[in-house]
Task: inverse folding
């Protein structure tokens, strides 16, 4: 069983930045696609960004493209989400996911999930 541990969430003012980290318990990140999803209160979980196993290909939701950057460090088994120009509508619990079982990286059917980290953006 792969364990994922997110960190880096917090409270930030609109326009600010945060970097989320997702550490895998074993060398998962070098063989699986990894992704970030988020869930705001009263809303369904939504795709944010994904990176393929090699790190060469990245994918973003339209709402975050140009502001967020996903990257991975294979030696540290860690995936990052750099979030810039944050907006109040980015407020959500952010989840790390590994090993897609769906039809695309945006499909929330991943086999492994972290516990989530809260990101709150104040206006």
Result:
């Amino acid at each position: 069983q792969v364990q994922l541990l997110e960190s880096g969430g917090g409270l930030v003012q609109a326009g600010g930045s945060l970097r989320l980290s997702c550490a895998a318990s074993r060398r998962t990140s070098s063989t699986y696609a990894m992704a970030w999803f988020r869930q705001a209160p009263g809303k369904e979980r939504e795709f944010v960004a994904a990176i393929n196993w090699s790190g060469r290909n990245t994918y973003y939701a339209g709402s975050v493209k140009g502001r967020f950057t996903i990257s991975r460090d294979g030696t540290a088994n860690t995936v990052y989400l750099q979030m810039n120009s944050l907006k109040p509508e980015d407020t959500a619990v952010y989840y790390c996911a590994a090993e897609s079982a769906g039809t695309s990286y945006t499909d929330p059917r991943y086999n492994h999930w972290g516990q989530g980290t809260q990101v709150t953006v104040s206006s």
Remarks:
- The CA atoms of residues 26 and 85 lie 32 Å apart.
- The chain has no helices and eleven strands.
